[in-house]
Amino acid sequence: MENYDKFTESLTKYIENVKQVVSSEVWIDNNNDLYIGEGGEPKKIGSNIVMASGTQMGLLAVDKDGYLYAYGIKPYNGFDKDFKELTKIEDVKDVVKVSSMGDSAWRFFTLTKDGTVYFKQYDGEFTKIMDNVKDIQGSYFIDKQDVVYLWNTKGIVKMAPKLQINLQKDIANTVLLENNTISYYAGTGVKFDKDDPKIEQLYNHYPKDIKQVLFVNYPGDSKEDRVINLKLVYVNTKNEIVLYGVHNVYDAEGTVDVNTKVSRSLDDVSKIWEFIRNPEKN
Length: 282
What we know:
Layout: E1 18-23, E2 26-29, E3 34-36, E4 43-46, E5 49-55, E6 58-63, E7 68-72, E8 83-89, E9 95-100, E10 107-112, E11 117-121, E12 127-130, E13 133-137, E14 140-143, E15 147-152, E16 155-161, E17 164-166, E18 175-178, E19 181-182, H1 197-205, E20 210-217, E21 230-236, E22 241-247, E23 255-262, H2 269-276
Antiparallel strand pairs: 1-2, 2-3, 3-4, 5-6, 6-7, 7-8, 9-10, 10-11, 11-12, 13-14, 14-15, 15-16, 17-18, 18-19, 20-21, 21-22, 22-23
């Protein structure tokens, strides 16, 4: 794809037969082949890959036999040396999933078949940090009793059972769901104070039929200073995509100014984009 760094004015098909989009330049196709896009023709770098995490600069991948692989430049590939080809890592076996923190894989976690989580920083060794785990998402771990934990540099924080994790680009903006609405837990593991009037109003404005959050933002109003709005794109409990906007979301007088269902068609992608983009201040 030439001129891949330039914006297009209309939807343009780039690739097809895609199973997993790992990042804007990395994907796995339906044949379990791993590709990277480098601005020209896509380059196949691996086969029999079931999942991957990272970017073209550095990534980690897992094959159908539970082997871990690394590719790219240090430290973005999770190691202190470069890998020009997808390279098998022998230090850990029976891997079912790998997750990195944000776009870069310089810190990452692996989950093995027996429920063990290993942590590795690019300049360190694989270290066992938790067991009895059934899933990892970013730096969140879900144990076999459905309790959610969060890893940070101070250790592992126990949060709550049955939280649904909606990962965003960075952990501070990750959304946690509870009982079909946004939870009082922040993406950083801190629970907001329900007694704070502004926080209470914010949560009163959240929809109560959320199945999955696709996008959330709290932009300042383009016309009124000190007014914060809500822009939310979510899948509701009927599997419909909803554009949901609230003007002055931290105030009891805040009003819902957008509540529109859109389809999964390509034609409606432009409607989603127009909704989430922030208008310039007057």
